[in-house]
Design goal:
By secondary structure, the chain is mostly helical. About 55% of the residues lie in helices and about 5% in strands. The chain is elongated and about 60 Å long. About 20% of the residues are buried.
Length: about 150
């Protein structure tokens, strides 16, 4: 499986926001730390805000912070928000499936199982988990901003 850049950027936004908590984070902070395009970050922050993962404050002195405790933000849920349900092969979507082997294909069953295992691992991870090595992450961020 491969996650889209949109999803990885969303996870980076949440991770950085957790590292900076309880302070407000600005879109330009994310751009500076991760070298991402500003319009992408704006779109991601908006989506994460609508979903309740971020609390946004507009205007001068504005920014965003986590909308809930980092231990309550499940990485698998964020992936589902940004990716939708995983559709590894066409037979995962009965409405558009053209394969005559649906229901008896062992490959399809194995791919379903593999996808379930992948998502189960992500469902065990929270933003608190991906931010737990705070000192190392903050040091690396500082290196990027200084260099």
């Amino acid at each position: 499986m491969k996650l889209t850049t949109y999803t990885t950027y969303a996870l980076r936004v949440l991770q950085l926001t957790a590292l900076r908590a309880p302070d407000l984070v600005r879109v330009d902070d994310v751009v500076a730390v991760h070298g991402l395009a500003r319009p992408h970050v704006v779109k991601i922050v908006h989506a994460l805000g609508r979903a309740g993962y971020l609390e946004t404050k507009r205007g001068r002195g504005g920014g965003f912070r986590l909308g809930m405790a980092p231990g309550k933000i499940i990485v698998g849920d964020v992936v589902r928000l940004t990716e939708g349900e995983p559709e590894l092969v066409e037979c995962f979507v009965p409405e558009s499936n053209t394969c005559p082997l649906i229901g008896i294909c062992r490959l399809s069953a194995a791919l379903h199982e593999a996808t379930g295992a992948f998502m189960a691992v992500l469902d065990r991870l929270t933003v608190a988990d991906i931010s737990a090595n705070r000192a190392e992450l903050v040091e690396r961020i500082a290196e990027r901003q200084d260099g």
